[in-house]
Amino acid sequence: MSDYPKNTIRHIMGNLGTDPEKPIGADGKELGFTTFRIAVTRDYDDDAQPRWYSVTVSKDALQNAVMSQLKKGSRVGVEGVPSTKEGANGQTFYNFRAFRIGLVEYLAVGAPSAATSKPAPAADEDDDWD
Predict the structure, then answer these.
(1) pLDDT at 17
(2) Is residue 89 helix, strand or coil?
(3) What is the Cα–Cα distance from 14 to 107, expressed in whole angstroms?
(4) Taking CA 122 as the corner, what is the angle to CA 121 and CA 123, rounded to the nearest 5 degrees?
(5) CATH number for the 10-103 domain, one of 3.40.50.2300, 2.40.50.140, 1.10.3720.10, 3.30.420.40?
(6) What pLDDT is recorded for position 6?
(7) pLDDT for residue 43
(8) How far apart are CA 70 and CA 33, in angstroms?
(9) What is the dihedral sign for C-alpha 44, 39, 62, 19?
């Protein structure tokens, strides 16, 4: 049972723990979606363990972009609909059905910024740690 209200849109940001992949069905054909795992931590809590999300992408154009541009370790922002599922031994599985994904680039603090850099967008007041 999910701890999120149905169809709640959320934003998460983290690092890919795996390269994106297109699962293969029993018949040997690619299934109609792409998956990857993302580790999300609270930046202000040094001792926090990451929360791992399994992200599913079903839109063809977004799948192509994910497969060609994202690799293990990429820092990404994901927008979509989260859900949770309880497993054996009280284990919780976090899933995320994505419909928008952005690659996050870092600017070094104190370093001169490039002429083409823009300020980061304002942070959203809402987070996914309810």
Answers:
(1) 92
(2) helix
(3) 16
(4) 115
(5) 2.40.50.140
(6) 62
(7) 67
(8) 15
(9) positive
pLDDT by 10-residue block (mean), the chain, 130 residues: 62 90 90 90 74 88 88 89 83 82 61 43 42
Gap between the Cα atoms of 128 and 9, Å rounded: 10
The DSSP secondary-structure symbol of 6 reads T
Contacts of 7 (CB under 8 A, 6+ apart): 81
Rounded to whole angstroms, the Cα distance separating 29 from 89 reads 34
What ranges do the domains of the chain cover? 10-103
| Closest to 8 measured CA to CA, from 122, 104, 95 | 95
pLDDT at 125: 41
Relative to beta strand 51-57, strand 92-103 is parallel
